Amino acid sequence: MIRPILFLALAVLPLSALSSSFAGTTAGSAAGASSHSSSSSSGDDKVVLDARDDAAAFVASEGAIRGAWLEAALLHLRERDAAAREASDMALARKILAL
């Protein structure tokens, strides 16, 4: 009984890693296509996409929880986009979650 469960677990784990990797590259492409910045690249999008968990915590806590990934993404967005310089941290965090 244990052997089939172990086999199934070992077979499914690599597939889940592959699918999350694929989703990350797909989301990165979509974010780059909708960006108003002409200097955006997949490496830049990764900074923003990596901040999604921190952005969710920030929004859910009404700004009380500020993670390092979110701080990096906010800085990155404001360096690249004039409209982002005028936006609040909360507005940018919500934008990150919408990606």
UniProtKB/TrEMBL annotation:
Name of the protein in its database record: DUF2388 domain-containing protein
Record key words, sorted: Signal
Region named Disordered: 25-45
Lineage of source species: Bacteria, Pseudomonadati, Pseudomonadota, Gammaproteobacteria, Lysobacterales
Low complexity bias: start-end ranges: 25-42
Annotated signal sequence range: 1-23
Keyword Protein transport in record: no
InterPro entries in UniProt: CHP02448 (IPR012661)
Species: Stenotrophomonas nitritireducens
Domain of life where this protein originates: Bacteria
Pfam family, any one: DUF2388
